[in-house]
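Lecture notes, unit on protein representations.

Consider one protein chain, 447 amino acids long.
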Amino acid sequence: MKIAVVGTGYVGLVTGTCFAEVGIDVTCIDIDQKKIDNLHNGILPIYEPGLEEMVARNVKSGRLNFSTSLAESIKGADVAFIAVGTPPGEDGSADLKYVLAVARGIGENMDNYTVVVTKSTVPVGTAAKVRFEIEQALAKRGASVEFDVASNPEFLKEGAAIDDFLKPDRIVVGVSSERAEEVMRRLYKPFLLNGHPIIFMDIPSAEMTKYAANSMLATKISFMNDIANLCEIMGADVNKVRQGIGSDARIGHKFIYPGIGYGGSCFPKDVKALIKTASENGYQMQVLQAVEGVNEAQKEVLFNKVKKHFGNDLKGKKFAIWGLSFKPKTDDMREAPSLVIIEKLLAEGATVSAYDPVAIPEAKHTLGDTITYAKDQFEALVDADALLVVTEWPEFRSPSFEVVGRLLKQKVIFDGRNIYDPSEMKEIGFTYHCIGIKADHKEPAAY
C-alpha cells in the first residue's frame, strides 16, 4: 500500500513512521521546507523516546519519505491522512482551517480512489466538511475521482506514542462505505495479527469517541485533585485514599494520581472543544465545565503553598524548579503547570532556576531569559530557598537528599507530584509540602 500523511507534527510523524515500520510505503508532507529539510537530515521537530531511531531506520530502507509537495505525494495514494493542527480558538472551539485547506489540496490533486482520513482531533461533523471541500475542488477542475472520507482518531500518549501505535488498546475507525472499511482493514492488518482490536463505526461516533476518551481521563484527574484538596482540609491522606479506591476494578489505578493539574496538547484543548460543541448545540456539559475549573485552580495549588509557607512575602527569594514539561518523557510545554507557577513566582518578585532533562530548549521559546536554566538538577538548587518538584521525571525520584539539603538555603521541598514519602522527608529534616496531605500529618498510632 501507499499512503500520504499530511502534517509532520506529533501525530503525523508518529503515524507515518509507525506505518513505515510495518512495511508500508509512506510519504509525510509539510509546507514547512525547513522542517522537511531537517527530517531528511535526521533532525526531528519533537522529542519522543525511540522515534529518532525509527525514523532513521525507515528513511534508510526507503519506506519513509518526506516532501513539501502534496500534489506529487497524493497521486497514487491508497490512503491520505490529515494530521495537521486544530488549535483552539478564543472561544474554545477547534480551528479547522488547516484541516479544510488540506482537504481542498487533496481534491485538487488526487487522481485515483483514495480514502481520506481525518487523524487530527476534530469535532463531530468535520468529515462532512472535509467531503464538501474535496467535492468542490474536484468539481472546479472538472474531475470525476471516487473517494471516501473516514475518521481514525489517535490515542497516543506523549512519551509512549510508539508502543501505543504499534500495540494499541484499540483502533477506532469511522467509515461510511464497505469499500472504505476494506481499505482501512487492509491498512491495519499488520496490527491485527497480534490480536489488537479494530472497531468500525459510523463517522460521527468515531469523531466523538476521541473527545469522550480524553474528557473522561481529564475528569478522573480533576476528580482526584478535588478529593486531594479536601483530604488536606480533613486530615486524610490522599495517597491511601487513592490506593483504597483504585483497588476497585470499576475505578482502577490509572489517572487517579493527585497533582498540580493536567496540561499538554490534548486534554485542555479537547475538553474546551467538547464544551463548546455542546454549547453550540444547545447543551451544557456541566461535569466538564467543573473539570476545567478544577484543573485551572489546581495549577495554582503549589504556588499557594509556597506563598503561605513564606508568609506571603516572596520578594528576593530564589526557587529551584525540577521539571518544566507538562509530563515526563516529552518536551511539550503546552499548558504546562510549570508556566503558571513560574509566572506567579516572578510576579511576586522571586527568581527561578529550573532544570528539565529535555524541555529547556522548548521552554526558552516561552519563558526566554526570565528565569535561569540549570545544566543539571543540582545546579538548580544552589542558594535556593526551596525546591519545587513540578514534573515527575524518573531521575528526580531518588536524589541524594544529603546533597539537596546542603545546596538549598533552607531544607524545604514543595512536591507537586507526591513522589517522596512524607515520613521519610520529616525524618531526614526536610519541611515537606505535597498534594492531599497536611504538612503536619501524622500516622495514627499502632495498637
